[in-house]
Amino acid sequence: MANTREIQGRMKSIRDTMKITNAMYMISSTKLQKARRELEETEPYFYTLQSMLSRIIRHMPDIRHRYFDDDYEWNGKRQGYLVVTGDKGMAGAYNHNVLKLAEERIQQAESYSLYVVGEVGRQYFHSKKIPVDEHFLYTAQNPTMHRARVIAGKMLELYESGTADEIYMIYTTMKNAVQTETNMVRLLPLSKVDFKVSQMPMNVYQEEFFFQPSPEQVLDHVVPNYLAGYVYGALMESYCSEHNARMTAMQSANDSAQEMLHGLSIEYNRVRQAAITQEITEVISGAKAQKRKKKKHPQAAGGDPGEGRGNARSIMEGVRI
Questions:
Q1: Residue 47: in which H helix or E strand, if any?
Q2: DSSP string computed for 230-295
Q3: I want to staple 246 with a disulfide (CB 3.0 to 4.6 A). Which of 28, 176, 186, 310 is the partner?
Q4: Pair 95, 127: CB distance under 8 Å
Q5: How many CA atoms are closer than 13 Å to the CA of 226, on its beta-carbon side?
Q6: What are 180's strand-pairing partners?
Q7: 131 preceded by a cis bond (ω within 30 of 0)
Q8: Predicted TM-score (pTM) of this structure
Q9: Contact of 147 with 138, CB cutoff 8 Å
Q10: pLDDT at 304
Q11: Over 70: is that where the pLDDT of 207 sits?
């Protein structure tokens, strides 16, 4: 059994660790709230772009464009994967779930190009000897619209140059305040089915559309902006999910630390009580030993009783004289 000093050292170490986990929890909470506000501020613009694409396809369902492909079938084409991970660990299963899904998809692909956002993903694929585009160096911290446009432009260039026939994005979304989900969506080519709305009633007025200079050129400008908005939303969702997962992990760590401290406190009290009991037992045993010694050897304790009486008698006689 450990002594009291060792138990106190363990308890101090746990309390010091709890200071770090509490600080990380507060930091992630602040960053999560800030990211959610920024995402909510930009959502209306990109929802409007999505609505515009839906209106264009609703009015011109037969339009043909290089960014759309309704005859899509997965048949082992050249694929590009944009994987969004975190820059740091200690976020529960956040990074593990994304990397697991990405690795499964890569193993099924015959030809692929891999682009990773976040240092954790790059280190993981490097350790697995999986080739990653070394020039695609983007962090997952503090996503910006400029970064999203650059990434979307890179994906469009990859698609238009024929390097990849399909572009997928693997990232994490927040289903609610405590639950996240790993998703894989196809960025390119787009499918008209995803933008179609339910059939409108016949008595509803439908506005007339005019495209200047042409529908194709309008889509050439709208689709890249839509993709940039989608990438930005995915980066922000992943960023929020990472901090949400880290908050959950830090809270679990604090709860476990509290349980450990409770168990160590009980163990410390037991050890301390055992030490006190042992000391009392030793004192009592020593007192009893001294008492027995006095009974067996009275001369050692107080000298010869006869000699003491003789001395007293001599003194009394001297007083009389």
A1: helix 4-59
A2: HHHHHHHHHHHHHHHHHHHHHHHHHHHHHHHHHHHHHHHHHHHHHHHHHHHHHHHHHHHHHHHHHH
A3: 28
A4: no
A5: 20
A6: 174
A7: no
A8: 0.77
A9: yes
A10: 53
A11: no
Q: Cβ-count burial of 227 within 10 angstroms (0-12 exposed, 13-18 middle, 19+ buried)?
A: buried
What are 264's two structure tokens?
């160590």
What pLDDT does 105 receive?
92
User: How far apart, in whole angstroms, are the C-alpha atoms of residue 169 and residue 273?
Assistant: 61
Distance CA 151, CA 148 (A): 5
Q: For residue range 37-92, what is the model confidence (pLDDT) as tens digits? A: 887 887 788 788 878 888 877 777 777 888 887 655 555 578 999 999 999 888 88
Instruction: Please report which confidence band the pLDDT of residue 103 belongs to, taking 50, 70 and 90 as the band edges.
Output: very high
pLDDT tens-digit series, residues 128-174: 999 998 889 899 988 998 999 999 999 999 998 888 889 999 999 88
Backbone angles phi, psi at 202, to 5 degrees: -70, -30
CA 107 to chain centre: 26
Q: How many residues does the chain have?
A: 321
Q: How far apart are CA 120 and CA 118, in angstroms?
A: 6
Q: Which two tokens stand for residue 28?
A: 């992630």
Predicted confidence at residue 91, as pLDDT, reads 86
Angstrom distance (rounded) from CA 14 to CA 17: 5
Q: What single-letter amino acid sits at 64?
A: R
Tokens of 75: 């048949």
